[in-house]
Each structure stands twice: as C-alpha cells, then as structure tokens.
Specification:
The complex is a heterodimer. Chain A is mostly beta strands. Chain A has one domain. Chain A is built from 2 helices and 12 strands, in the order E-E-H-H-E-E-E-E-E-E-E-E-E-E. Chain A has helices at about 55-60, 65-70; strands spanning about 30-35, 45-50, 75-80, 85, 95-100, 110-115, 145, 155, 160-170, 175-190, 200-215, 220-230. The longest helix of chain A is centred in the N-terminal third of the chain and has 7 residues, at about 55-60. Chain A is globular, with a radius of gyration of 22 Å. By secondary structure, chain B is mainly β. Chain B is about 10% helix and about 45% strand. Chain B has a 5-stranded antiparallel beta sheet, with no helix packed on it. In chain B, strands 3-6-7 form a 3-stranded antiparallel beta sheet. In chain B, strand 4 and strand 5 form a beta hairpin. Chain B has 3 helices and 8 strands, in the order αββααββββββ. Residues about 1-5 of chain B have low confidence and may be disordered. Chain B has one domain (about 25-90, about 95-215). Chain B has helices spanning about 10-15, 55-65, 80-85; strands spanning about 30-35, 45-50, 100-110, 135-145, 150-155, 165-180, 180-200, 205-215. Chain B is elongated and about 60 Å long. Classes of the chains: A mainly beta, B mainly beta. At the A-B interface, strand 1, strand 2, helix 1, helix 2 and strand 5 of A face strand 1, strand 2, helix 2, helix 3 and strand 3 of B. Strand 5 (about 95-100) of chain A pairs antiparallel with strand 3 of chain B.
Chain lengths: ~230, ~220
Amino acid sequence: MMVGKGIEDIDIDMPKDAYDTGKDTPTFRAYLTIIVRDSEGKVVKVHRQKSHSPTANFIGLMLPLTYFNVTGNSYTLKNTGGGTYGYKPAINVGAQCISYPNTAVNYPSYIVMIQVGSGSQSNPYAAYSLAAPIANGSGTGQLIYGQPSVPSNIIVSGSEAYFTISQTFNNSSGDTITITEVGIITHLRFSQSNNGSYTDFGQVLVWYDVLSSAISVPNGGSVTIYYTFTVNP
Amino acid sequence: MVTPDLVSEEDIAKLTIPDDLPDEQPTFKAYVEAKVYDKEGHLVQYHRQPMRSLTQYFLALMAIPIIGTYQGASINQAPGILTNVLGLPSSISAYYNANISWDWAIQLGSGTQAFSPSLTSLAAPILNGTGAGELSYGSLSVSYAGSTIFVSLQVTNTTSSAISVTEIGLKGTIYIQYSAGSINTYSFLLSYDTFSTAISVPALGMAIFQITLSFMG
C-alpha cells in the first residue's frame, strides 16, 4: 500500500468541530485559589485564577515508556538548583525510574511544598525554579511555610473529577509580604530495582504560575493557597 | 493568631471549585484525530474532534509528578490517591528497591456508552488481529513539542469488509518493578471518546488515529 497522496487530491469535508475555535470546553483545567487573612483571622482577600503552566519537567515526567523505548532518547529534567538529569525509565532491572515505597529502602519522592515568590518570569514552561522564592522563616521578607496538604482521594461528581492540594503560610516578618508567583516543588529520587542504587535528583519545579495580580499578606496574617486539578469541569 | 472559622471549610471548598473563569485561555486542549486511507493509499476520510472525556485515572496518573509517590520525606507509604484511585500498593515487599513507570496505548472500539470518570474499558473493543471485525494494530508512536504530547497508532484492515470505529480510548499501564525482575502491572482507561462521525476503515485500507494532549503554557 502506498500512503502519502495529498489531501488535496480528494474531496473531503472537514467536520466543523475540526477547527480550533478557541471556544472548546477543555477536558482538563487547573485553578488557583488564594485566601488571605489578617492578624485576627478575618478574610481580607480571595483571589482566583486559572492555572496555566505545567513546566517542561512535568511534561517529561508524564511521557510514557513508549516514547523512551522507540526514540531511545532521554528527557532532560532540571532541578531547582539548575542541575540536570537524563530521565529514561524502562522495564529493565537496571533502569532508574521514580522510586516507589518498599520494605527494603526509603528513597522518597514526594511533594515538598507549594512555594511562593516575589518575582516573575515570562516563560513558565521553561521555569525550573521561582524567580525570587520567598524563604521559610520569620525574618524580613520571609513567610513561615506550613506543610502541604494532599487529599487521600479524588472527588467524583457526575462527569467531573478533581483533587485539591493546599498549603498555608504565616507572616511573622513584621511587615507586609507580597506574593507574585507560585509553584509546586517535588523532591524526586530515581531508583533501580536490582540493588540499592538511586539518584537523589533533589527538588523539581513541576508547576508554575505568575499571579494575575499581586497578593499582599499583612503582618500577623496568613495566606492559604489551593491548587485544584479537575477533569471534565 | 489565625482563626479559620470566619470562612467555613464548606465555603472554601466551594471557592476551590470555581465556576468557569471567563476571558482566559484554557489550560488544556485535547483532540482526537483520524486519517483513513483506502487500499491504494488515497486519503478518503479525515476527522478531528475535541477530546472531552478524561477519566479520574488520568487525573491520578498526572498527580504522580505533582505529589510524588511517597506521603512525605519520612513516610514510606504511597499517597492515598495512588492507593485509593489506582489501586497501587501502599508499600511493596522488596529485597532491594522498587520503582514506578507507565506506558500508554490507544484502544479502538465499535460500540458506544455514556461517559463516567470511572470507566474502565471501551463498550466493544476491536481486537488486534486479522479475523472478521478485527484490525491489525501497529506500533504506538509518542512524541512531544513543548507542552503538547502526541500519541498515534496505525491500524490496518486486512479483512474483506470495512470496519467501523465509533469509540476510542487512551489506556494506561503502570509498572512497579522490584526485587530485580519482579513486575506488578495495573491497567486503566485514561480517556474515552465516541466519534461524532463513525470512522470507516475500508477493506485492505488503513487508518492513523492520533490523540493530542496540549497543556497550554
């Protein structure tokens, strides 16, 4: 069989829904919800926006084995320190894949935090760290990071399914702190199944958003950031 | 001191599941595409439609890069989303070590069914083969460009009758490797769509089906 004759040599009706109108209902969405409280616990601001930006790290981590098997390529991940790793999972005892909990060793890959920052960058896809991370602490310009909260299940409601991760930050710095960027940081370890070998790749930015408007957290107050991931909203 | 009771948790839950926020570009677009060729290689049908139906298993799979595979730095157990939704073990008994990886496949079918985020299979899968009503599945191809992932499959109809394809699914298989050669597998349906127009693969013809997942940056 010969394949390759041009589409122009035959009269084919293009279905209307073949055209990208920009108005299609996407099957997946991500949202950011940010709630700011003052020193008395009173809600002073609620901010919501669509989240736009999985990073290149996320795309590489999502790729299935077939990509790596067929192309022979690895995917270059970059951690928050700028270090790189050639990710190339495989069904092979010597291949390094994302570590999984087991009874022999403890090489955890886990969500470290929702990180907040005071900078911005124009190409979120290429981001591997926040532009200006706000440090964890009570010093000038710092926020006290709580622990990330991860649900134990996905909520299903009709055709929709979603989960939300969240984290609270307290401001004991003595002054207002302004947040302009947010990201999700995961610590990744890649292990092989035939021995105890592994690579501790460190912290990886997998999701990144510049806020559509800056968020001010008053001294003595707090901010809680919710990332919601949903299909068929 | 921060007191969270000024906005109830119920109110917060409502806020975190917002109605559509207008005037912004969507985060994600997905398409299902089919190109059909007759036995002489002429393109006889082209079809493209938005994909609308990801399952909860897709959401759980994409949670892995986001939340990881452990509950925390010192908790040697898998997060609840992995155990409760995907049915993965909380921890696996291993001599040396364990790791996780996954693969995808495109499944075609000749039935239809109502969508549910918990769907586990197509209504009437078309088998891989050369018998009546079967299609010969070629190798899967996966590529990416920026934040868009392309998954395509070529099928050939070696039978003497046209075969109608009315449904398509993206299937996923998770592999947990441990103890130098042991592998546990877990399979899921990641997406399910029915074609707005049936795709007819002519006798001795072939077709290429492509699923495009575009995460908009």
